[in-house]
Design the sequence.
């Protein structure tokens, strides 16, 4: 890696940026002022709002006990149970990590260590809602007890600062609990407290939050205070003793996790602020201590915080938008979305005890089903060197565990939601030209294995039903599959997703000159058509929606099954189940109505099946206007932009505006669903840039940006790509209350590097070559981007439905059946 890192630092420190600035002077300003980590920390956003470095392993925050505390702290009035150092962000599943929380007392009742309360359920406390402060690299909160807690982090180490209310009789006690957010501790956990120094070391085994297996995490906690150490010891359940310093504790008593851990107490004194430095490691307590000692040697809060601020500032450097005529809340929405794309995945390089390798190791891909759509594509533009490491890690994981992950957290396999989504990630990154150290032949072999071999346990890797896929060319409902095991549901969404997976594999095969493979996978990528039932209608509350032709489940014998096309849609309140339950439906987390648009590679064939662009547009409008789609979940992302394929790019622009900022606003409750490791953040960022990816293809769909201009420096080439609007001010006058909200007007014409540009999409070289796109706006939908030759590429041909030409290609027989 050295040559590449060297190249990068050169780009950032000298030549690259200077040249870029010469070409496109861009306003520079401190963007951290526009990052609000609390967005999505309430109302099911499940965002981790605490202190972290980009892709950092240590993530410090106050943990609460309220409903959506998956990310540790939920800003919705729960009680604080402790302060812990490991978290995931935005995930569904159980609350993730939250291991080894600390909890502070100014003093114990009766000045007796047994006068403090140890069990989590009993010690938890309210916090002062307006005391909560969150900034990149910093989180602060005041407990109802008057204790102010500030925290910051290095890569594997957290630093907590506990300030107690002034009172000369204080004798602060900090406890460390051998627990996690989900009370998932397994077998024997240990802690040793050094009586001389107060250092606490130990470990415990825990369960992952959306996967199988378990993981062991080690810790090393040191404490510093102007006050002298008074005593230390351990606690079990509600009792503590300074006479005992070592504890090995079982999993639970009668099914309830047994509280246990260590404590340290300080002498009364004038200033008894306590700093707690907690190093964590998956390798050993020694490594946890080594991280802590090297990363935060002097317990210096301000320096550690400043380092974090510098790292975030550096990471945010490639992108700037114009601040002309735009409300600060819009900037906050945008930059905070970008920030969240770099909380997860987490860089556990050097922290993987499962195999020996010199490759990078990233974890908390939680899940690729979420992040392939826009998060990793965004990072591919914005932070390619990190994406390169992520891809190398995915390939290395396959090398050692046999399969590419689909979801991965805490060193464990997570559950697969549908297709083999790592295929989409690898293909997208491959097409966008990232190379540095990536073994693409190994990458291709890994995705091909997903396509060809069925794993024994396809609930956590690969694909199920591959025999049917190859022989019948669809995934049947109630498949007969004795080769591998997983939940036998989602036959429609799996058919659609496997089709797409095969398409992206075909694209990689083309790039690698594997022509026969490319043809084979392209053929298979048309299998989605085999579940299209031409005469299927859709009724809602007894009334015909007026549309005919939907996907339907199909049995092994070729007979159609039935699933109401609106079941599991946003408007279905009948209790339909569409997750991973064995009673679930044939579409994952959404309806047939929404999945009918999931043919990202073959949109023209889909448009033909749905009777041409006009009928397609009416149908896509119906999906959105009737609230059938649920913008709070990832399958909805692309539907916002698919008007482009019907020659109606202006409608995509309108649609973006109906969702942002109304459904994605810069407030704690501002996200419509789980952020899913930053997937929602990337949706906001890319939609507001006016460039949305169709991932797995070299395609960005163009819409009106929310800013007068957007500049992105390619960290690979140092060149600056710019989107500018020529006549922004005309269309972005302040709204009735005087706020400039942006994103108004429709594209009438465009130039690319000064030459007229009519295509409604653009390729990745826009970013790497630093091109300049100038958009001329108008009040109404124009003709720009509406012609056949302006449309994004599609596997199937454009039909004869109104783009002025082309061969009408009707679906007649089972695709792929000879
Ligand atoms: C928080 O704790 C207080 C007592 O300190 C209790 O009254 C309240 O119900 C708790 N809130 C929640 C959400 O558990
Ligand atoms: C936990 O410790 C006990 C006591 O030393 C031992 O008998 C038991 O086998 C240990 N359990 C595991 C799973 O290691
Ligand atoms: C990940 O961590 C390793 C080891 O600390 C480091 O060399 C690498 O640069 C990190 N990668 C990123 C993207 O931060
Ligand atoms: C594929 O073949 C073309 C034309 O022969 C060649 O230019 C290209 O380098 C080859 N690519 C790979 C990955 O082998
Ligand atoms: C095909 O299988 C389904 C499910 O077992 C059954 O309901 C249907 O009657 C079968 N069709 C024929 C033609 O045998
Ligand atoms: C869709 O939901 C929005 C609010 O989320 C509501 O204003 C609108 O009336 C709903 N439309 C329909 C057709 O139910
Ligand atoms: C401008 O319009 C008013 C009235 O419709 C809204 O209440 C504001 O929220 C809006 N401003 C922004 C920034 O969206």
Sequence:
């Amino acid at each position: 890696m050295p040559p590449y890192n060297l190249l990068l630092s050169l780009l950032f420190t000298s030549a690259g940026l200077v040249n870029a600035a010469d070409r496109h002077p861009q306003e520079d300003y401190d963007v951290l002022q526009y990052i609000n980590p609390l967005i999505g920390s309430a109302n099911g956003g499940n965002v981790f709002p605490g202190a972290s470095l980009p892709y950092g392993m240590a993530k410090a925050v106050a943990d609460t006990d309220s409903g959506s505390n998956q990310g540790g702290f939920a800003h919705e009035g729960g009680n604080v149970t402790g302060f812990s150092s490991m978290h995931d962000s935005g995930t569904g599943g159980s609350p993730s990590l939250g291991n080894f929380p600390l909890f502070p007392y100014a003093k114990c009742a009766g000045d007796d260590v047994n006068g403090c309360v140890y069990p989590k359920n009993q010690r938890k406390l309210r916090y002062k809602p307006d005391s909560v402060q969150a900034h990149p690299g910093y989180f602060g909160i005041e407990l109802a007890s008057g204790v102010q807690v500030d925290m910051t982090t290095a890569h594997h180490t957290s630093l907590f600062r506990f300030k107690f209310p002034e009172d000369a009789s204080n004798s602060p006690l900090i406890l460390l609990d051998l627990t996690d957010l989900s009370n998932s501790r397994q077998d024997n956990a240990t802690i040793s407290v050094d009586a001389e120094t107060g250092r606490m070391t130990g470990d415990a085994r825990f369960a992952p939050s959306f996967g199988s297996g378990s993981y062991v995490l080690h810790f090393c906690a040191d404490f510093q205070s102007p006050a002298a150490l008074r005593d230390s010891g351990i606690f079990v359940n509600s009792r503590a003793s300074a006479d005992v310093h070592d504890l090995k504790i079982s999993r639970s008593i009668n099914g309830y996790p047994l509280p246990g851990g260590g404590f340290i107490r300080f002498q009364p004194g004038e200033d008894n602020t306590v700093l707690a430095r907690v190093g964590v490691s998956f390798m050993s307590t020694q490594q946890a201590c080594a991280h802590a000692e090297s990363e935060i040697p002097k317990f210096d809060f301000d320096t550690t915080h400043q380092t974090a601020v510098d790292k975030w500032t550096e990471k945010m450097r490639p992108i700037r938008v114009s601040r002309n005529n735009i409300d600060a809340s819009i900037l906050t929405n945008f930059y905070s979305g970008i920030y969240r794309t770099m909380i997860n995945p987490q860089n556990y390089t050097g922290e993987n005890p499962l195999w020996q390798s010199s490759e990078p190791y990233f974890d908390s891909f939680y899940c690729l089903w979420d992040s392939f759509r826009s998060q990793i594509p965004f990072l591919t533009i914005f932070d390619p060197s990190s994406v390169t490491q992520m891809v190398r890690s995915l390939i290395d994981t396959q090398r050692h565990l046999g399969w590419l992950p689909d979801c991965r957290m805490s060193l464990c396999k997570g559950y697969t939601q549908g297709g083999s989504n790592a295929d989409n990630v690898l293909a997208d990154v491959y097409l966008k030209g990232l190379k540095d150290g990536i073994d693409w032949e190994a990458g291709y072999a890994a995705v091909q294995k997903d396509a060809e071999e069925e794993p024994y346990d396809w609930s956590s890797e690969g694909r199920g039903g591959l025999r049917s896929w190859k022989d019948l060319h669809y995934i049947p409902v109630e498949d007969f599959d004795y080769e591998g095991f997983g939940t036998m549901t989602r036959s429609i969404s799996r058919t659609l997703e496997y089709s797409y997976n095969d398409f992206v594999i075909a694209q990689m095969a083309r790039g690698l000159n594997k022509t026969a493979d490319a043809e084979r996978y392209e053929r298979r990528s048309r299998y989605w058509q085999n579940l299209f039932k031409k005469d299927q209608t859709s009724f809602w509350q007894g009334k015909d929606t007026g549309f005919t032709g939907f996907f339907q489940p199909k049995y092994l014998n070729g007979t159609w099954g039935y699933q109401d096309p609106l079941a599991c849609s946003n408007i279905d309140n009948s209790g339909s189940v569409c997750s991973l339950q064995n009673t679930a439906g044939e579409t994952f987390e959404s309806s047939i109505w929404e999945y009918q648009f999931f043919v990202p590679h073959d949109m023209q064939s889909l448009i033909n099946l749905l009777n041409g662009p006009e009928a397609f547009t009416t149908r896509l409008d119906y999906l959105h206007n009737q609230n059938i789609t649920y913008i709070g979940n990832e399958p909805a992302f692309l539907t916002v932009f698919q008007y482009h394929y019907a020659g109606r790019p202006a409608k995509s622009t309108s649609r973006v505006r109906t969702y942002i900022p109304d459904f994605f606003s810069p407030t704690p409750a501002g996200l419509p669903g789980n952020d899913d490791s930053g997937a929602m953040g990337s949706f906001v960022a890319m939609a507001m840039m006016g460039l949305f990816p169709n991932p797995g293809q070299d395609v960005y769909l163009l819409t009106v940006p929310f800013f007068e201009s957007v500049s992105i420096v390619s960290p690979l080439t140092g060149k600056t790509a710019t989107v500018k609007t020529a006549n922004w001010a005309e269309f972005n006058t302040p709204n009735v209350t005087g706020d400039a909200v942006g994103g108004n007007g429709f594209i009438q014409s465009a130039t690319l590097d000064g030459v007229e540009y009519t295509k409604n999409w653009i390729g990745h070289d826009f970013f790497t070559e630093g091109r300049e796109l100038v958009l001329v706006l108008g009040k109404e939908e124009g003709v720009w981007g509406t012609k056949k030759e302006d449309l994004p590429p599609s596997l199937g041909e454009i039909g004869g439905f109104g783009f002025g030409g082309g061969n009408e290609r009707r679906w007649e027989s089972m695709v792929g059946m000879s």
In short: Confidence is low (pLDDT under 50) at residues 1-25, 802-818. The longest strand covers residues 215-224. The chain has two domains: 3-313, 340-797. DSSP finds 21 helices and 34 strands in the chain.
